[in-house]
Amino acid sequence: MSLPSFLGGIGDVGGGVPGKFPLGTSQDALLPVNGVDLAPHGLDVAVGYSSVSVVSPIKFSEAPDAMGLNVATLGYPESARNILPQDFRIRLRTHKGYIQRLMEAADFPLRDHPNSFELSFNVSYGLSGSPLIAQAGSAAGKAIGVCVGSIRTQLVDYAALLVDDDGRRVEEKHLMIESYGIAHDVSRILDWCPSFIGDGTPLRNL
């Protein structure tokens, strides 16, 4: 989900985030969130803190060798949820592929995105905010981006209009439809420190 929807959802579920806890188990749980801080520069990122003590397996890094880099993401999309009375079930989904284009704000129609990665796979609805993890290169095993959604384009590949002797019109059109995922590049916020981190530790070292 988008960051605003996610933050609104925290309030809807009583100040918590649904997920798996303890880490490494399949136990569904509602993890308490005491507060969040929004990242600068328009990135779809928030860092929160909780009374539950865990060590995050996710570390952040830049990726100077990003073009063509093999990447993966994982999370809990809307289509994987099964909510029943007195029961909440959700299973992890993983996508793998590569970065097929590096994008700047001017590459988007509204020019309102930070630097981003175009992905060879779609980002499932509800996976916005999931980490984009490098599978090779200097940033292997670290999150280099945050998935935000997918874009679908439609182009006319071929079109023809025929008119016979009786004036009847026959039209033929071939469409090319492309769909790909988008992830925000986190390199610009690696030196950002959330306000509740008292010792000034930047995101790259959390």
Describe this structure in words.
It is a single chain. By secondary structure, this protein is mainly β. 5% of the residues lie in helices and 43% in strands. The chain has a six-stranded antiparallel barrel. The chain has a two-stranded antiparallel ribbon with strand order 1-2. Strand 10 and strand 11 form a beta hairpin. The longest helix has 10 residues. The protein starts with a helix and ends in a 21-residue tail after the last strand.
In a nutshell, what does this entry contain?
By secondary structure, the chain is mainly beta.
Give the ordered list of helices and strands. HEEEEEEEEEEEE
Helix content: under 10%
Name of the CATH architecture: Beta Barrel
| Tally of distinct domains | 1
Secondary structure tally: strands: 12
Spans of at least 5 consecutive residues whose pLDDT stays below 50 are 1-14
What structural class results from the helix and strand content?
mainly beta
CATH class descriptor: Mainly Beta
Biggest beta-sheet profile: 6 strands, antiparallel, barrel
Major β-sheet strand ordering: 5-8-9-12-11-10
